[in-house]
Amino acid sequence: MKYLWYLFLPAILWANPLQEAIDNARPNSIIELGDGIYEGNITIDKPIRIVGGKNAKAIIKNCGTGSVITIESSNVFLQNLVIKSSGHRKEMLDSGIKGEKIDNITIKNCRIEDVLYGINISLAKNLDISSNYISSKDEKRPLRGDAIKLWYAQNVIIRDNTVKKARDVHIDRSKNITLAGNRFLFNRFALHLEYSNKILVQNNFFQYNDAGILTENAKHIEIINNKILSGKGSARIGVVLKGGEDILVKKNIVKYNSKGVYVDAKPSKKAKTKREILSNEISFNLEGIHFHTIIANNVIKYNKIHDNLDDVVKDVIGYGNINNTVEYNYWGKYRGFDRNHDNIGDTPYIIKRYMDKLWNYNNKIKFFYGSAVLAWADFLCEIAPFSEPELILEDKKPILKAPPKPLEAP
Question: For residue range 63-98, what is the model confidence (pLDDT) as tens digits?
Fold first, then answer.
């Protein structure tokens, strides 16, 4: 039998009646909070449901120290709450909601704000984090905490949340994670996947972040149908693919960034990394696809790559190309013919780098890229190169006319 507790406290009154209600409640009880302000620093050590009204005016607030809610039990459900004003201590991981070694946790339709870390959970499984608004302290980006920080978590759904003005959503050493329908605005690394496995990132919206998505030595990652726009800050990168194995980037729109897709691969022929970059629109960036060191183990097909200052850039001399498949992409800069009218160019689209293009290696020089002087230098390098150019990428079957919808396999 479940017990129902009602608390109707209009303001902060005596010493923490919410904690007293939790302590006195039987397991699997429901504590329903009326509108008002409740003292934080509470610990939930039993299966319980804490629910506010539909307008989410039940506020659980700290006085600026410690974590607002600490979960020490499995089977906890939090809904329709405002959770705010944690402490500032990073070494203590002061958070809005903090938990460790827990299972079956639901956090739904909560507003978590003015906290260092938003939701910080480790050694956990079966989590549902849905329809929340999460932001950090009003500090510069490096001084904020992560909106969501998961460490050794598995079987997690993160859906329909708004993450704004935090540091990162950091998923570390975790697996079986779905992120869908979320909005990431004004963060540092909006989504940082590190040493994690089996992650689906689908139908999310990223804007005004230093970097939209960063995968770091992660495996079996699917990044599908996201909008990654208008990078902001020092990096301004849409997607960073660093190491890892079995990475799929498909049907995304990547626009208005300094670098659309940044690929950092190890310069080793034995590297197992496989990246598939398929059916994306990569446009209106300073650099469409940026390769660091080697270009290896990539499948780049059916993409619309156009109106970038540079479509493809490689920032280190040498290493070359290993085991790449590049075909059926639409390149806005391709100038070729289609005599048999099959919408495939008669000649390959070849991207070369001339050693005279110093702006590929020096950002201070690239500041002047597009000026009359460098435009003439670029033109002269192509018609009369002073040295043998380096092949960066070759699309053997470029598409001449791109349809308005994402390109697919013929």
Answer: 889 999 999 999 999 999 999 999 999 999 999 999
Q: Which of 409, 361, 359, 352 is nearest to 382 (CA)?
A: 352
**Residue owning tokens 């949340």:** 161
Can you tell me the distance from the alpha carbon of 5 to that of 404, in angstroms, rounded to the nearest whole number? 56
Contact 112, 97 (CB under 8 A): yes
pLDDT in tens, 302-345: 999 999 988 999 887 777 788 899 999 999 999 899 899 999 99
The CA-CA-CA angle for residues 277, 242, 202, to 5°, reads 50
CA distance 69 to 120: 10
Check residue 406 and report its DSSP letter.
P
For the chain, the straight-line distance linking the first and the last C-alpha, in angstroms and rounded, comes to 60
- C-alpha 281/C-alpha 29 separation (Å) is 50
* Report field, pTM of the whole predicted structure over 0.85: yes
Tell me how far apart the alpha carbons of residues 115 and 27 are, in angstroms, rounded to a whole number: 28
Q: What gap in Å lies between CA 330 and CA 110, rounded to an integer?
A: 44
Q: How far apart are CA 13 and CA 70, in angstroms?
A: 21
CB 115 within 8 A of CB 139: no
